Amino acid sequence: MELRLGKRADYTVRAVLDLARHHDGGRRKAADIAEEMEVPASYLPQLLAELVRADIVRSVAGRKGGYTLARAPEEISLLEVIEIADGAVVATECVLRGGPCRWEEACAIHEPWLRAQEALRSSLAATSFAEITEIDAALEDRPRPAEAR
């Protein structure tokens, strides 16, 4: 089983994390976000535009412009950002049979899989970018093992 973010959601989450990290520091330039978060600079403006349309990010044009979060990091969930980038976090195929999942042809694990899917969605919805920023800071502050010589 493979459970991972697609590139689009990965880069979008990284961009929002950068803006959450710098939430009290003013506007961020797209080039700075791209460099710090290792997101392709040519791709980032598309992702930021989607976030602006979704009212997650605000943008200001001009030399002193840039991007900021439209809401506090506590008010932005990981689920919300992932779904802006990749669409709904739901299974679209029957786990056992492949193809569209239909209630009239539900397989034996349909209900348990649905419960697991809802648990994942609930967990992502309960995870704010304030929490992710705290986790990220703790990871940055941890001691690194000495490099192999």
The run of helices and strands is HHHEEHHH
CATH superfamily: Winged helix-like DNA-binding domain superfamily/Winged helix DNA-binding domain
Count of helix runs: 6
Strand order of the largest sheet: 1-2
Give me the count of strands: 2
| Terminus-to-terminus distance | 37 Å
Unreliable stretches covering 5 or more consecutive residues? none
3D shape: elongated
| Residues in helix, % | 40-55%
CATH class: Mainly Alpha
Percentage of residues in strands: 5-15%
- Radius of gyration over all CA atoms, rounded: 18 Å
On the 0 to 100 scale, the average pLDDT is: 89
Supply the CATH architecture.
Answer: Orthogonal Bundle
Biggest β-sheet: count, sense, barrel? Answer: 2 strands, antiparallel
- Classify the secondary structure makeup into a structural class: mainly alpha
| CATH topology name | Arc Repressor Mutant, subunit A
Describe the 3D structure.
There is one protein chain. By secondary structure, the protein is mainly alpha-helical. Helices cover 48% and strands 5% of the residues. It starts with 6 loop residues before the first helix and ends in an 8-residue tail after the last helix. The mean pLDDT is 89.
